Amino acid sequence: MKDASQYAGRKYVIAGLVVVIALVYVVRLFTIQVLDPSYRLSASNNVLRYVTQYPARGLIYDRRHRLIVSNEAAYDLMVIPSQVEPFDTAALARLTEVDVEEIRQGLEKARRYSRLKASILVKQIPATAYARLAEKMHKFPGFYVQPRTLRHYHRHLAAHMLGYVGEVTEQVIKKDPYYKMGDYIGISGIEHSYEKVLRGRKGVKIYLVDVHNRIKGSYQNGRYDTAAVVGANLVASFDADLQAYGEYLMYNKVGSIVAIEPATGEVLCMVSSPGYDPALLVGRKRQEYFPRLAQDTLKPLFNRAIMASYPPGSTFKVVNALIGLQEQVLHPWNEYSCHGGYYARGVHVGCHIHRSPLNLTEAIQNSCNAYFCNVFRNILDDPKYPSIYQSFENWKHYLLRFGFGHPLGIDLPHELSGYLPDTSYYDRYYHKNGWNSLTLISMAIGQGELGLTPLQMANLAATVANRGHYYTPHVVREIEGSDSLDPRFREMHTVPIDQKYFDVVIEGMDLVVNGAPGSGSTARIAHIPGIRVCGKTGTAQNPHGEDHSIFMAFAPKENPRIAISVYVENGGFGATYAAPIASLMIEKYLADTLTRPWLEEYIRNTDLIHNKDDRKKQK
Fold first, then answer.
1. pLDDT (tens digit, 9 = 90+) per residue, 189-208?
2. Do 197 and 96 lie in a common domain?
3. Listed residues 202, 236, 270: the one ending a domain
4. Contact yes or no for 409/472 (Cβ under 8 A)
């Protein structure tokens, strides 16, 4: 049997461990309960009310620093059902400018949610109504007001670029814990793309409340309150006057205008017509007007500038000319004859009557279909490629580098890619090795399977203006407090075509607008005295109605400051409506004066939505 003295030392060791552990717990509890206030705060949650302090959203200015979007005060009427005493429901309804039934239903919903916690009873009470309500709040125990802000538009334009703000959905809340039910978020346009910049940061005020959730005072004299941080201001790239003028010219027309500054990629205007007044989607009005706009058959909420895909028509001849020159299957002096169109193996592509034969610059000037059918077939039948598959992929590679067939990356949501067919598309329709350059001949003149967005067409004009490069188009040029925008907007994108070939094509585009009378220029109506405009008309066939009128251009010829595309659906020839609109827009931006009031009147008074006779003009 072991001697008890052997265990004497162990007894003291165990006792020492117990003392040490006890000391650790005592020190930890002292720290939690006395030194660290966060735990006291957490333990007191059941007697504290956290009231969110909502920041004002950042302001939005146009490129000339003119205020376009600011904020105005609005208020949410909150209710704590347990504190409500009998009140005059009709009086509260009048003061908040809602129906009595809305008050009753809202109160019942709040009771079901919680009798002790606050709920929103009436949203977005305007400041004018709140002024009357504030005087009478003492008559409504259990109610209080939560300040909010709503967007205010100083100029009612650019709705598709600016976008609108709406209440967050449950899906948004699940993805981003910053948002709580009842918060607001940018839904579309700049408001959406720059939401994290514009929204600022919410603050909070903490109040002591009693067991009935009644405020007894500020907790710790506001020691743990946090102030809201207002959102950063933005300087947009668009010119408000130019934007307003574009919307004025597109009145009663369906289509779009996109203008870009070639040297930077900044969007100078983006018109989608029909559009809408952005103020209609602010506050309570949104509940009434959004369904109307969404159900309108003309789709005013649809941003045609970045979401519609159209055949580019004859404007695409510029691209095929550049590719042909680079591939050395076309030379500026090459001439082709045209006798009413292009004929080959039973295929006929019609053309208007003009002098013949023509060289390259003359073919661009006259928009000769036969000439560019020859160019396109020379590209695809180039003997240096083993088959049509290789030559087609090479041709398509050029188009991708021009920015076609994929989104350009503009800082707006929902930009679409347009459409470029691939070889598998034709294999499905014509079987493997069952198609050739003649099968695809409609793409020689920008028809067939091709689809470009108006933004891509304006970007093409900017690329030609820059003699071979472009910058990603963007609608915001400056963020307050930030050194620069996303670096991708400063990155130059080059196309694989020598600059000398752009000079040749630009000469042809110059002749389109500025050629001598009787020389076959297709857009002399776009000529502006004192401003050298280079452009290209297009008339896109439309299986659903009248042809689309298309025009792309840039100006001045040297050191261009604006590149533009105009699409007018069911407008007929490019020179009928698209070219005059582009010309007026260019003159407005570069000269800020208008020397052709008769042309403005002609465009403004044309109604292509309601008056079918106008669609037949000059057909």
1. 999 999 999 999 999 888 88
2. yes
3. 236
4. yes
